[in-house]
Amino acid sequence: MTKLRLLGSLVMLLTLGVKSGSSTDNSGQPPAEVVAELGTNYRLLHPVNLTGKDFTPATVADLAHDYDVIKYKLELSLAPSELINKLKGHTTIQAKSGTVNLTVLSLDLVGLTVDSCKVNSQLATFNRLNGKLNITLNRGYQPGESFTAEVFYRGYPTSGLYFETNKYGKLVCYTFTEPDRSKYWFPCYDSPSDKALSEVICTAQAGNEVISNGVLLDVIKNPNNTVTYHWQETYPIATYLISLAVSDYAQIQDQVILGTDELPLSFWVYPQDSAKAVVDFASTGQMVTLFSELFGEYPFLTEKFSIAQAELAGAMEHQTCVSWGLSVQGNSSNEWIVAHELAHHWWGNLVTCQDFANIWLNEGFATYCEALWKEYARGLSRFKGHMIGLEWHVLADSAGSVKYPIYSPPGEYLFGIAVYRKGAWVMHMLRYLLGNQIFFKGLRSYAETFGYATSTTEQFKAVMEVESGQELDWFFKQWVYQPNFPKYKWSWVYTSFEGKYFLDIYITQEQATPIVFRMPVEFGISSAAKDSVLSLYNSSRYQNYSLIWPGKPSQIAFDPNNWLLGVQNTAPYPATAGDLTGDKYVKLGDVIYLINMIFNRGPRPTPMALADVDGSCQVTLSDVIYLVNFVSGKGPAPKMGCPQY
Question: What pTM value is reported for the model?
Fold first, then answer.
C-alpha cells in the first residue's frame, strides 16, 4: 500500500555519483538528487489516523480463532443522500468450525445497526459487545463442520467505507480499510490470517459504476433508478483487500499477453481525467510482464488487473482492483506507484502477511519493486537513484519509525518509513548477499510455497535459506528484528616496501544499537594497473584489514555499487604516526623497531604505513633518519604513509 502524494513531478536523473550522505535531520530538505528522483514530497499518507491506542499488531494468540471463513457474500445498497442509513447490508458468511462444540460465532463489527441474524436460514439470537457481534449457533459444531450465518444491518459507517464528492462535483463512494477497518462496513473476522472467497453485489444510483474485486458477473438496471453490479472473487482474499469504488467512471481498456493467456487491464477514471490516464497508466502491461518474469505468473490471471479512481490520500492495492487517489497528471510521473501497487498482487495479495506485525513483507517488497521497475525500464542509474532516495528518507527518520524494528512496529509506525523504505533496503541487501540468481529464485519459490495463503518473516527466511543453502538468522536478526542502521566511519592508508604495496583499511561502526551490523563490504580500488572491487567481511565494531595490493592505489570508494544501507564517513586512520610498537608513544623504541624491520626483516607494524614516517609513500632508509630527527627533537612530526587527509 502506498500512502503518499507527490506535489512535484519526477524528472529524469541522468547520473548519481555518491550516496545520499549522513544527514539524520528529519526536518531537513532532501538533496537535489533525491528530489529529482522521488519528487518534492515523497511522504506516506493514510486516511486512517493510526496510533498505538487505535491499533496493536496481531500476535500469535490473535491468530487462534475458532472458525475458518470459507466465503463472504456481501449484498449492499448505497444511499448517499440518506442522513443515517447510507448503507444497508446483508452479509452471508460460510464457515466451518475449528474447535470442539462451537456454539457462538464471534464476528468483528463496529457501529452499524444489526436488525437480525440467521444461522442456516433460521433466525438466531445475537448480542453486541466491545466491537464484536456474537451470534448463537443452532447447535454445537465440531471441527470441520460447516454452517452459514447471515447478518442484516444498516447505518452510516464511521470508517472503512467513505461517501465523498470529487473535484468535479460527482459522488464517489470507496473503501479503504487496511489494517483493520473492514469491520466498519461488513461483519467479518477482520484479520489477514483468515483468507476467504468473496462476492460483492452492490446497488447504487443509476449513472454510477460499481467496481470491485474479481470478475463482473452481471449488471442489472433496476426500475427505481438504481443499478446493481455483481462481482465475484474466485481467489482467496484478506478482508482488508475486499473493496468498492463507486462513481461516474470512464473505462479505459487494455490487455497484456502472458504466454498463451490474455490478461484484461481496465482503468476506471473520472471522465475529465481519461485522456491523461491513458498516458499515466500506459506502462502497466510492461510492468505485469516484468513482475511475471521475476516472481511467477500474475496470480489472478483468470480475472483482471485494474485501477479505480477514488478520493483516498494515496493508493491501495485492493485485490485485482487498485484504488487510486493520486492526481492523474498525464505525464507518467507516478508510474512507479503503479508498479508498487501492481507488485502487491504478488506481495500482499497472493502471499499475505499473516498478521500486521509482518507488514514489511508486503510493503518492503512492493517498495523495492518500484526500484526494480526503474532498473528495467529506465536503466541502472535510475534504479540507483531510487534506492538513494529511499535511503535518504531512512536516515532522516532515525528519530522516528527507524528507531524501531521493521518487524512488529508500534501502531503509529505501522505504515512508517522504516516498514516501507528500510524494508526495501533489506530486500536490496538480501539480493546483494545471495546474488541475483538465488535471490529471485528464492522469491519465486516463496510465492509458490505460500501463494493464496499467508506467511511470516520466519517462513520467508526459511525459504531463502533453503534456496541459498545459507543460514540467515544473523541477517534477519539485525535488519528485521532490530532497529536502526549502521554508521560507518572508515579510513585507508598505504605505502610500499621492497617492491610491494601494503594497503590497510579500517572500519568503525558508531551506532548505539545494535553494536555491530555484520555485512560484506565492497571497496572500489583504483590503481594505474586496473580498477578492482574488493569485498571484505565486516563483523566487528572495530576492524582492520591488511592487504598486499598488486599496484599503487590512487583512490578507494566505500560501497561503490550502493549495496549497503547506512551512514558512511571517512576519517584519518586511527593510529599515532610513527608509533610502530603500538604503545601510543613515539620514542627510541620505534626507531629500533624500524631499523630492525628494514635491515633484519623484523616484524612489520599494522598498518604498514606507520613505518612511512616521511609520507613519501614508500619505506626507505630516509624514514629512519626522519624518525631519529623527530625523537631527538630536531625534526618535524612523523606522518603516516599515504594518502594524507
Answer: 0.92
